[in-house]
Amino acid sequence: MHLHLDPVGGIAGDMFIAALLDAFPALGAGMDAALAKVGLPPGARCALLAHHDGVLCGRRFELSLPADAAAPGAGHRHHHHVGLGAVRNAIAAMGLDAAVAARAAAIFTVLAQAEAEVHGVGVDEVEFHEVGALDSIADIVGAAWIIEALGPATWSVGALPLGSGRVHSAHGALPLPAPAVVRLLSGFAFVDDGLPGERVTPTGAAILRHLACASAMGPRPGRLSASGLGFGSRKLPGLANVLRVLAFDMTDAPVADEVALLAFEVDDQTPEDLALGLERLRACDGVFDVVQSPVFGKKGRMAAQVQVLAQPQRLAAIVNACFAETTTLGVRHQLLARSVLERKQTSIAGADGAKVRVKIARRPDGQLGAKAESDDVRAGGERSGREALRGGSEAAALRQEAKHGK
């Protein structure tokens, strides 16, 4: 399953929960049971409410707390200072499923790391003020339970609204987006829609970072199976303060991901040196492939056009490698969506005991294909030996896959 978050009004912990429960109402009872373990004080109430803002219908997640409620490990609410250790201990003591507790602790940890970097202190010195309250602990535990209950899934998020202004905190007035949010969402796409205020909360940002969402990606190819709207508590002028989630069934769709494409031309490097440089570039961590084509450049010069496919997170390092290994003075790059077939790699023992790596792919019609690694097939010697080793290895890999797949 692929889940795409559309932050029309922004994102916060309660909006995330409301949107997912609107899309998957069957999860509500399980999340209520998980939140019952948070240890809410007498008088506290969690509710998933139907909401209509005059234009759209959806859900709101609301936690009502008595005025004197305190966060775990803290004193009264109006002066609580809760450290990361206290929050982790409180989560561990709740009796949650181990995977849910680990997710909740991980979300708090990425938030603490961002706060520590912003304020120049150690992670253990960070004191949660706003997010240390019970309502935010409930938001994060609820979000962690939902993420775990949904099972294996990929996530993406559209461009996030920037917001503007100031927010009051225990550190005084802070600019918006809040410094911790800026640190957490480095690399994410933002858009300024002209509406002020806090549009992305620290809790919402920490959830996005934990999910490792692909930023500014549209929904991936697949069958739309569910959607939900989660409203925030604020009312925005002329815009629904809502987070929309779109769920896609990817069962019959090729696996989709994102790849970086780099391109440049070279017309002043000797063929021998360029070949060596491209071989070194091909060996760089994060590079999928390097190809070159002959082209005519300026002034009718023959040139080599080079294209590199790479992991997006390694883009900066690979751009530097292009400059180091070739004479180019500029590198064009862009992020592209790609679809790939389900595939895996296995190893087959040859007649002499040497391992031959074989890549197995499943076609859309369910048929399996196999391809032996060329470098490993070289051990077969002459052409007839190589062909025998290749054919035998590929057939053995397909038999092995068919046996294990039953």
Low-confidence segments, given as residue ranges, are: 73-79
Spatial gap, N to C terminus: 23 Å
Helix percent reads 25-40%
> What count of structural domains?
3
Number of helices: 11
Strand order of the largest sheet: 11-6-1-13-12
Helices and strands: which structural class? alpha+beta
The radius of gyration over CA amounts to: 26 Å
Total count of strands? 20
Strand proportion, as a percent range, falls in 25-35%
Average pLDDT level: 86
Question: How would you sum up the global shape?
Answer: globular
Sum up the structure in keywords.
406 residues; alpha+beta; Alpha-Beta Plaits; 3 domains
Structure, described:
The chain has 406 residues and is an alpha+beta fold. The protein has three domains: 2-249, no CATH class; 255-340, Transcriptional regulatory protein pf0864 domain like (Alpha-Beta Plaits, 2-Layer Sandwich), CATH 3.30.70; 343-405, no CATH class. It has eleven helices and 20 strands. The protein has helices at residues 13-23, 28-35, 84-92, 98-119, 134-150, 179-184, 202-211, 271-282, 315-325, 374-377, 383-405, and strands at residues 2-6, 45-52, 57-64, 82-83, 127-128, 154-157, 160-161, 166-169, 172-175, 190-191, 214-215, 223-231, 242-249, 255-266, 287-296, 302-310, 332-340, 343-349, 355-362, 368-372. The strands form seven sheets. It has a five-stranded mixed beta sheet with strand order 11-6-1-13-12. A four-stranded antiparallel beta sheet has the order 15-16-14-17, covered by helices on one side. Strands 18-19-20 form a three-stranded antiparallel beta sheet. Helix 1 packs parallel to helix 5 (134-150) and helix 4 (98-119) crosses helix 7. The radius of gyration is 26 Å and the shape is globular.
